[in-house]
Amino acid sequence: MTQTATAQQTDIRPFRVNFSAADVADLRRRVKATKWPERETVNDASQGVQFSTTQKLANYWATDYDWSKCEAKLKALPHFITEIDGLDIHFIHVKSKHPNALPIIVTHGWPGSVIEQLKIIGPLTDPTAYGGSASDAFDIVIPSLPGYGFTAKTKAPGWDVPRISRAWITLMKRLGYTRFVAQGGDWGNAISEVMGLIAPSELLAISTNMPATVPAEISAAMAAGGPPPAGLTPDELNAWKQLDFFYKKGLGYANEMGLRPQTLYALADSPVGLAAWILDHDSQSYDLIVRVFDGVPEGLTRDDILDNITFYWLTNTAVSSARLYWEARQTPSKGGFFDVRGVKIPVSVTVFPNEIYAAPETWAKRAYSNLIYFKRHDKGTHFAAWEQPAYLTADLRESFRSFR
Amino acid sequence: MNRVWPLLLLALPCYSQMTQVPTPPATNTSIVPFHVQIPQAQIDDLRRRLAATRWPDKETVADASQGAQLARMQELVRYWGTGYDWRKAEAKLNALPQFTTNIDGVDIHFIHVKSKEKNALPLIVTHGWPGSVIEQLKIIDPLTNPTAHGGSAADAFDVVIPSLPGYGFSGHPSGPGWDPTHIARAWGELMNRLGYTRYVAQGGDWGSPISSEMARQKVAGLLGIHINLPAAVPPEVSAALARGLPPPDELSEKERAAFETSKAIGKTGALTYFAMMTARPQAVGYGVTDSPAGLAGWILVHPGFAKWAYGAEPAQPLTKDDVLDDITLYWLTNTATSSARLYWENGGRGATSPTAWKTSEISLPVAITIFGEDAYRPPETWARRAYPSLAYFHEVAKGGHFAAWEQPELFASELRAAFKQFRGQQ
Fold it and tell me: Is B10 among the domain residues?
């Protein structure tokens, strides 16, 4: 691949983070000028993101929220751009000071971004400062997906999960890594798993916090609309109930983005519209965010939540990011997002109880013929690295020890 | 409820009638004249927002398969913000007698035009989403004044055109419960309040299940209905479509064609707005309430607009002004979210499912016109199975999902033919 490419095309160029003050001021102006619908007609979240939470978010966003703090955090990290397969890919690349650090590529999903991964950079690259030993060190690569963050927006169809997975392998090789691991949840899981299916010799193992483990007979029973099959364990029954809710009530956003992403003009033009659409992602992370804006300290802060939304806004990536769902629909797939893909390389699974579904260990064992690690935590929702960085860090150190 | 009320007042746009006339108590059955008068500040604000639209990047395909295309949207929004004049639509509305009356706690807005002809047949016409009373304006004269439109005096109708709860100038329900079944009951009350003891009902889109429900409930005075979005897909066909199975073996050629069309609609995602508004109207609502361009993009995703060329095809009946009148009405009345809530209220009942709407229980005469440019064109065999009391079935070449809006004369002549059976039975 690199033999035919010119030096210029495979260049890794330093990237400087810079946001225009005018864009930040325009955002605040728009939030203040929001035209609101009336309150929902029910006293719960069954009609979607509730009015009072959205107003609390908007009030904070328009007044005390300070984007420059997040911008400073981003600026403190080494950013790069490199062109892969015709598209400029942005990534953060932090090398450990420790020798023999294990290279890891960590992939975000929707509605996430590199903002989700910032908290694990220190613990992974500088373990001795975060309760680990020098032998736990990772070199970390955190790319922005095509159409997300600082990566270029796609101009033609084709950037689906397999293509991104191939690009990530190219990226790691281009960085000179001959032995590396991959981690992800959400789209990051799909990409890490497909990297695992491609199974280049350099990829030693993957870690996932949103594993696709649903057995075929379970998917079929659910698609048929029947009751859960007899004989499920309590964990399996819990997963069934979570999935049933998701497929019946929780997939609206994904269908919309999968079929008509360009229809979402409102998300490019209305910051509060964008925020509500992002908060709507899944009911359990939504509940957590509601509590955060009610003043209950949990895994995320108000600033965390608004840093990510503001990053989407300032990069104007609401529609370009939604397009990944459309891409995924272009290739007929055998099953749902959570259906077993058949990864044979070593897999480490981290389960959070309030993920869209909490994968049971029984299913994970069937899904991954080489399951090297399985850990179910006592708390946590969809955004592992962002919300529970200590848990994820501990799992990554533990599960990849044998590859050092 | 009281806790909600102050927020609701803040969110409501201030058209003069609604701010000057206090809401009548629920027991008040008075009928209050209504006049549209949007404050200039709201129109200026709309233009300001349109000029300040922040756009996403262009779609990555050369067609509308990812949604309304950027270049067309930009051109439409440019015209909306500079050339388009809402006051013309307002004048058209104000040239008609409009009223509000409180039914079950919600102010229902309606246009009510009586024919000058004697023995005119009263008719209530119900719009759907993303429609409004704007859709029905062109049929008023042909229906109420048939002699000026190729009909005879005996074809005359008195026309009542309500705005659905949460739509246009009707009030926004502040609690749950306003599903098509409830609206059907309210329409019966409205016609009763107007003193009509023998009348007919018509509807497409949401107007179709609402009219069907009126017939199923046999609301007092209703003689029969005409619908142009019949719930006629047989259960075994729906099941095959839902599961991605091949068409059932016994389908005729025409039925098979309808099957394939439905399948194609499902695949292209034309109905994705249905799923989203059913599941979480309040999530979609914020963006389309705050961004007029976003509202336009969301409305234009409706399959009824799939072939609309944004006014670039002179042969197409809907002009840019027609469509912008409708979208601007949604904007100025701040009804993007409240209108979406009807899908949530409906709870996912498919508009085309006879089971969902219990059409077999309807005994009043049902008339159906299939308009040839509508994507959904169920064959007569399906309609007969779904509606045992089918009294009229006619396929016409022209007209699409918004038949009254697109082909008002044809639409009016269909209603004349369909309802002829109820004339002269005084």
Answer: no
pLDDT tens for residues A224-282?
A: 888 999 999 999 999 999 999 998 888 888 888 988 899 999 999 999 999 999 999 99
Selection from B421, B409, B415, B375 nearest residue B394 by Cα: B415
- Per-residue pLDDT for A220 more than 80? yes
E strand map for A154-254: 180-184, 203-208
The number of folded domains in chain B is 1
Contacts of A51 by beta carbon, 8 Å cutoff, 6+ apart: A36, A37, A38, A39, A40, B7, B282
Residue of B nearest to A314 (CA): B54
Asked if the C-beta of A262 comes within 8 angstroms of chain B's C-beta atoms, the answer is yes
CATH number at residue B299: 3.40.50.1820
DSSP state of A191: H
Amino acid at B80: W
Catalytic machinery residues of B: 205, 343, 401
* Whole-number Å distance between alpha carbons of B406 and B397: 12
Min Cα–Cα distance to chain B from A253, Å: 7
Tell me the pTM.
Answer: 0.92
Q: What is the ipTM of this complex?
A: 0.92
* Sequence-separated (6 or more) residues with CB below 8 Å from residue A222: A240, A243, A244, A247
Helix (H) or strand (E) holding A312: helix A302-315
Relative orientation angle of helices B207-217 and B180-193, to the nearest 10 degrees: 70
pLDDT-derived band at A387, boundaries 50, 70, 90: very high
Taking CA atoms, A259 is separated from A223, A239, A274, A286, B245, in Å, by 20, 27, 18, 23, 20
Best of B12, B54, B245 to disrupt the A interface (most A CBs within 10 Å) is B54
The radius of gyration of chain B's CA atoms, rounded to the nearest angstrom, is: 21
With beta carbons less than 8 A apart as the criterion, state whether A275 and A391 touch.
Answer: no
The answer to whether B301 contacts A47, with C-beta atoms less than 8 Å apart, is no
What is the domain range of residue B372?
A: 39-232+271-421
Q: Is residue B412 part of a domain?
A: yes
Please give the DSSP secondary-structure letter assigned to residue B22. P
Ordered by where they begin, the domains of chain A are 12-403 (3.40.50.1820)
Residue B79 lies in a domain: yes
Over the stretch B21-65, which tens digit does the pLDDT of each residue have? 445 455 689 999 999 999 999 999 999 999 999 999 999 999 988
- The answer to whether position B29 is within a domain reads no
The total of other beta-carbon atoms located within 10 Å of residue B92's CB is 14
What are residue B227's phi and psi, to 5 degrees?
-130, 150
**To the nearest whole angstrom, how far is the Cα of B155 from the nearest Cα of chain A?**
43
**Which tokens hold the place of A267?**
């998300």
